[in-house]
Amino acid sequence: MKKVREGYKMTELGEIPGEWEIKPLNKIAYKIGDGLHGTPVYSEDGDYYFINGNNLNDGKILITNETKKVNEIEYQKYKKELNNNTLLISLNGTIGNLACYNSEKVVLGKSCGYITLKESVNKNYIFYALNSNKIQLHFYKELTGTTIKNLSLDTLRKTNIPIPYIKEQQKISSILSSVDEQIEISDNLIEKMKELKEGLMQRLLTKGIGHSRFKNTEIGRIPEEWEVFRIKDVSDTTSGGTPSRTHKEYYKNGTILWVKTGELGKKYIFDSEEKITEEAVLKSSAKLIPINSVLIAMYGATIGKTSISKKELTTNQACCAIICKEGVLNYEFLYYILNFNKNSLIKLGAGGAQPNINQIIIKEYKIPVPSLQEQQKISSILSSVDDQISQYESKKEKLQELKKGLMQKLLTGKIRVKVS
To answer: What's the pTM?
Structure first.
């Protein structure tokens, strides 16, 4: 049996500080319930939003263009006991998602649960406790239903929470809130840089740099000095293949990257989930594709997504590799052009619910081609923005890892905070 540290005790939630308590959620809440089991009368000019569990995201109530509204009469008919000490929780779909209620004008649907807490506990601390891995895992173990899984109110009421003294609750939530604030700052910076990139692409990929004269072409208005080429005029294309799974020697101890369409979307490909052997390349439809090729997904859920190969690699048959002609077409410029024109390229595809494009469509696709020098300048500007986005995303990932570690240690008392 594991020895309990001095000053700690063993509980159903594991080892916690001796002075902490374990309490079920219904002992620290005035009321735990859910929303309307039915449909209200919607009103386009209503003042209240009708929300469900899918409107709860990252601690906030997410209102979209699809969120329905109701009027004052419907609100008064179906309103719940919500106040600034209330947490909202998703009871099906994205189960366990939480939001802090802050006097928003909302009416709850049945998949949106509410927990109105007593003043003896700190709302933000309980929010983080319910978001912890241990409690989220408990929710998933207790789900009811067959095709549609539900988190029952009974499970919610009986869920045990570790409860420190109130000042320690406040300190723990303050530390975690400060990390969340930094994550939100990173999110805002990422969003602003993406908006900047979108604007730059619109300008640079249609108007170029320093041009004053323009011409009308079959692909739209472009600088007079630019030309229009089909992709096949300025590059070579090829697609990949899948080595037979029955030949284990094609995959076992493989060292050659084998990229699937699901791995496309990030700018550069340096590695792959699976690798194949030299024998697979020699004896199957897989082909070696040179470094700095532009890869594009031709069908499936990832259709139109692009990446640049930064190692010699192979791909499956759903990927088309475009190998730019040296001195004519810059691979980074092509990458940005294909990203910018993704929707128009997809529209050329055929198929059922999910369109498909193929090598013929890609080869015949027309693109604007500036001088190589201008291509490189445009690519350099857009790459610098991409680099900045990557830095912010990397910082966000580190903050998320920090938060994850802090939650594990602070919400179990493994690390104690100092309180006055």
So the answer is: 0.86
